[in-house]
Write a structure and sequence with these properties.
This protein is α+β, with helices and mostly antiparallel strands and 306 residues long. It has 6 helices and 19 strands. The strands form 4 sheets. It has an 8-stranded antiparallel barrel with strand order 1-2-3-6-7-8-9-10.
Length: 306
């Protein structure tokens, strides 16, 4: 196993060396491919414009029909990006607005962490007070450097302890919060959700933490003598069908992740930041301005019920 890992690293290093001599961003098309969906790509064209196909049969000359905030555009699905400077970022992160080719019609807002051999791309919301809020993240590897995805989070893993929990429940953790002792976690590597629904921490939200699977979850119960018992809960870092979806779909998910889930009675699905703003504010009973980590806690028995 160690030999296999060493061989993979060696191939990756050699590929990086050779490909750096063959490609330049100015003269060649550079293609990044989603590690979970080979049909989803991020293509940097020689003129610096961007193409983002999400279908295998995609043609670069495909004529798209876009409707964004009441603005209509029909033309090539090619975009020009312009840097955003008014959002807080982490090291190595840049944010952009993507406009339909040769127009001022904004189609996407994206956060991009560029590691050269791979990209971490995260959607951004638009609107008053949520302009810098994250959504879901994806990892795309450069087509000539496959196998080089090596996440390097900036912080220690975040340990999330959940008390008074209910299974099959949606739980939210507001991150990037102003530090208030007694209200917000003092240690940025741990946070306690005592009401089983929501909690706060001043720890910085980070797309690289999410794709690196740097969140650890624990359920906390009181023992018969009043002592606290905690159990680690396995996490599926991907969207899964809800308990209201067909049983066949839910069974497929459990089969796919069985080696990860083991004999656990519970599991968590964690795949994105920021569910609907109204939903968040209703949960907290106040307007939350920071990014919110959203996850589901499922009971295995109830998840597989007819």
């Amino acid at each position: 196993m160690c030999k296999a890992k060493f061989s993979a690293r060696l191939i990756c290093m050699l590929t990086l060396l050779l490909s750096s001599q063959q490609l330049t961003a100015q003269n060649d098309t550079i293609i990044y491919i989603n590690i979970l969906d080979s049909c989803s790509k991020y293509i940097i064209l020689p003129d610096g414009k961007i193409s983002m196909p999400n279908q295998c049969e995609y043609d670069i000359n495909f004529k798209g029909n876009f409707n964004n905030a009441g603005k209509h555009y029909k033309g090539r699905a090619v975009f020009e990006k312009r840097r955003i400077y008014d959002c807080p970022t982490i090291a190595g992160e840049e944010m952009y607005r993507f406009y339909a080719e040769n127009t001022d019609i904004e189609i996407y807002k994206l956060s991009i962490i560029d590691k050269d051999s791979f990209l971490i791309i995260t959607g951004l919301k638009s609107g008053p007070g949520i302009d810098c809020h994250y959504m879901g993240s994806a990892v795309l590897e450069r087509s000539d450097r496959k196998g080089c995805f090596q996440p390097n989070p900036f912080y220690r893993p975040l340990e999330i302890f959940i008390e008074n929990y209910k299974h099959n429940a949606h739980i939210q953790l507001a991150m990037d919060q102003r530090f208030v002792e007694g209200n917000v976690s003092v240690d940025s590597s741990k946070v306690y959700i005592k009401n089983g629904q929501y909690g706060k921490t001043h720890r910085r939200s980070n797309p690289e933490d999410l794709v690196s699977q740097k969140y650890r979850f624990y359920l906390v119960d009181k023992g018969i003598h009043g002592d606290l018992l905690q159990q680690a809960v396995p996490v599926i870092f991907a969207p899964v069908p809800s308990v209201y979806m067909p049983l066949e779909d839910r069974k497929k998910v459990i089969e796919k992740y069985q080696s990860l889930l083991g004999e656990s009675v519970y599991f968590i699905s964690c795949a994105r930041f920021n569910p609907g703003r109204d939903y968040v504010n209703t949960t907290y009973g106040e307007e939350i301005e920071g990014n919110v980590l959203s996850f589901m806690l499922y009971s295995m028995g109830e998840y597989l019920k007819e």
